[in-house]
């Protein structure tokens, strides 16, 4: 079956799903927006470190503790994007706002006007 953009019209609201850009192994500052440690007051090597990751009790690291690790390359859905233009001749759909992934990435577009 041929996939066409003529099912959409300007002003429609759509939900667009895709995979975000992969960032590789990212630190806590980039991945979670941590502020890091101070530059002065006796600190040497703790500018972009996490800091404490738990209390002395329960004597373990809890699940879902935010730390450094793999960032990006995950499926996300951007909802309520508005269709700006539809060109059936070139089969191009333009929307207001950002879409996940790099240029030329595959996207899943759902019409949410129904």
From TrEMBL:
Record carries keyword Iron: no
Any GO BP annotation: translation
Cross-referenced SUPFAM superfamilies: Translation proteins
Keywords, sorted A to Z: Ribonucleoprotein, Ribosomal protein, RNA-binding, rRNA-binding
Pfam families from the UniProt entry: Ribosomal_L3
GO CC annotations on file: cytosolic large ribosomal subunit
GO MF annotation list: rRNA binding; structural constituent of ribosome
Family: Belongs to the universal ribosomal protein uL3 family.
PANTHER family tied to this protein: 50S RIBOSOMAL PROTEIN L3, LARGE RIBOSOMAL SUBUNIT PROTEIN UL3C
Name the UniProt record assigns to this protein: Large ribosomal subunit protein uL3
Source organism (scientific name): Candidatus Brennerbacteria bacterium CG_4_8_14_3_um_filter_43_14
């Amino acid at each position: 079956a041929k996939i066409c953009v003529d099912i959409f019209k300007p002003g429609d609201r759509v939900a667009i799903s895709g995979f975000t850009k992969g960032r590789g192994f990212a630190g806590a500052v980039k991945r979670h927006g941590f502020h890091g440690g101070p530059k002065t007051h006796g600190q040497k090597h703790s500018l972009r470190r996490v800091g404490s990751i738990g209390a002395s009790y329960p004597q373990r690291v809890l699940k879902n503790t935010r730390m450094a690790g793999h960032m990006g390359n995950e499926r996300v859905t951007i909802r309520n994007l508005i269709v700006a233009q539809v060109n059936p001749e070139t089969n191009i759909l333009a929307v207001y706002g950002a879409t996940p992934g790099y240029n030329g990435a595959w996207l899943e577009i759902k019409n949410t006007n129904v």
